[in-house]
Design a protein that fits this description.
Mean pLDDT: 94
Order of helices and strands: HHHHHHHHHEEEEEEEEEE
CATH topology of the largest domain: Isoleucyl-tRNA Synthetase, Domain 1
Shape: rod-shaped
Number of strands: 10
CATH class of the largest domain: Mainly Alpha
CATH architecture of the largest domain: Orthogonal Bundle
CATH superfamily of the largest domain: Isoleucyl-tRNA Synthetase, Domain 1
Number of domains: 2
Number of helices: 9
Low-confidence stretches: none
Helix content: 25-40%
Radius of gyration: 37 Å
Strand content: 15-25%
Structural class: alpha+beta
Length: 283
Amino acid sequence: MVLTHKFFEGKVPARGELSELDRQTIAEIATYPEKVGRSIETYRFRDALAEMMNLARLGNKYLTETEPWKLFKTDPARTATVMNISLQICANLAVLCAPFLPFTADKIHKMMNLPAKGWRDAGGVDLLMDGTTLDKPELLFEQIDDATIEAQVNKLLETKRQNELNAWQPATVKEKVSFDDFGKVDIRVGTVLECTKVPKADKLLQFKIDDGMGGRTIVSGIAKYYPEPEKLVGMQVCFIANFEPRKLKGVVSEGMILSAEDKDGRLVLVTPSQLVTAGVNVG
């Protein structure tokens, strides 16, 4: 269309004498409505789309072989024939791409001033009448930058996350235990005196706890959910006091701080709703 505006004032030029390449191209154009239509009717949509794209490739190949941008100075009549056939390919694409790209098909129709055409009209090289004035050509598709793609991907991921949250169900209740078994677990309340990240351990926080019994150190794997551990100082937490001490990344941990795992995977510290004395039992 750009070349038509440049060489023929935006009007569809008439075809002149046909070369062997022209006749082969015209014959191949005629095969595409049946190829695309048959694939659609048999629900082979990927094949149908591929055949439609093959028609576009035929147009690209035809232009590359004829090189009308070089031909016009020496043979404007031959250039007119090449441009006519090329424009007829575009007109056929406007019809055949409609099942896949309806809005793009409308844009091509409008730019070419192409009258409404049905599927039965496709395959010929008389869709555009000689002398038809083309509108100013415009890009059919906008370039999608990385930021737009990232935004759409994030939107899809957020939708997936929300769907997973909405479908969340509580975990199955574990095997029953006796009250005596539960009574063996010593759960206490302590006050956080210090809280720092454990060096070379991204997941671990080191708590210094006032447990009412002289104090203790507990290491907990919740650093991801509390990026500013110093803000936990002064908070009261529930912890298991009678676990055997364990060494984690060189730090001896004397218990386990209790936290609740929310449906989105966040770990939230379990804490009394009111201030209580450090060292009191939970039960």
